[in-house]
Structures are given as C-alpha cells and as structure tokens.
Give the backbone structure.
Amino acid sequence: MSWKCRTCGRCFVTWEGREQHIDVLYHSPLDYECNDCNTIFAKASGRGQHEVNVHFYCRDCDRHFMNANNIRMHLNSRTHRGSNIVCPFCKRAFATATGLSHHLEGGHCPSAPFLNCEEVYKLVRSKDPTGVISKKLIDWQGPSATYEATGKSWNGWAYECYFCHRSFAALNSLNQHLNSPAHQQPLYHCPNRNICGRDFKTLAAVMNHLESESCGYTRFENVQTSVSNIVSSNRRLTFN
C-alpha cells in the first residue's frame, strides 16, 4: 500500500515519508480506504458517507444492504437512533414517530386507553388547522361505528369480510379486521401534494411515509420533532 498526499496527490512508499512531507508543506493526508472499491478519503466521515450512499454498507454493523432505502431504514432504526420519542402519557420510549403513532392509535397506551385512530385524528386536527397532513373532512362526524361479525360470515371454508371479501381463519381475526382502519376513509395526506399527493388512513402510515423520505418532502429528523409537537406541546404542526 502506498501513502498518498490529499493536497498534491503525491504517493509515498512509507507512512513516515508521507508524514514528513505533509508536516513540511502543511498538506493533508488520505488515510481512510473504502472496503469495497479501495477509494481513499481524508476523513472517516467521508468514507462512511461514501460507503452508505454507493455501497449500501454500514461500517458500524459490518452489514451490506440491498438498496438505499434498506440501509436508510437501518440507520434510522433503534440500533443507531436509540429510543428518543417518549409517549407523553405512559412515558414508554420509541425509536420513531411511526412507533409512537402505532402505540397511540392502536389503544396500546395503558395510561390513555381512550385513544384510538379517531381520537388521535381530532388531536392532530387541533394542531394542524391549515391541513398540512390532516384532511379537512367537513362531513366527518367523529368516531366510526363498531362492527361485530357473527357465525353467519362463514362461507363454507373461512370467515368472509362483507366489504372486501377477504377471508379469515378465525372469527376474532375478522372482527379485528372490521374494526381496524382497513375500511376507514383516509384521514391524512402527504404534505407534498404537488409531487406525491398520497392519502393515508392513519397517522402512523403518513409518518412512516415521511420517515422513508421517499417523496423528498422532509428529513427523518424533522418528522420526529413534529410528532413530539403533536402530542406534547401547544405548537402547530410543521416539518421545518
């Protein structure tokens, strides 16, 4: 291996020779080599960014990923981000805004069992009067009806959903499906209306979409701040 000067491009047979050269001329070294293509960088941060963006490689975990989206999800996971999003009710920590949204919309918070998708939507609307992510549903009357299927939904081999005709092995599974957001009208939309414009039925779904950065509207970090403002402050919803 040769030792290269970043400033003038000169290579040296020994590390000592290169170090003497950069000390005398105040040049910069190139010491950080990419494992995949052997490109050399002056700083570890430059090599790390290159390995992530070009080779989908996480140096900390020594793992390669199939594509840019997969490694982005990995770098934004609990493994690298920790659990910094705290439920304002039960104080349980989550790694992402999506995780907290699922927790609240699913009625899983032991300190706020009254919360569900509809109640969370009303909370979001109060923080989002201009409709950045929440739809202005003029005819929305509040919490939707509760459905309960009976044995009459058995079609001979499975329990069938009357609305979408999806089959379930157990009646309890069908009832869970009926009372999920599956047949609920969309309550949210992507704020990037001109380019994306997708609709979503839950806050968790729109948060997951924004965290993926797939439509380029905002950064992962901004989404985490925004969900914290929704549930624990009087500030209006923004993604700045």
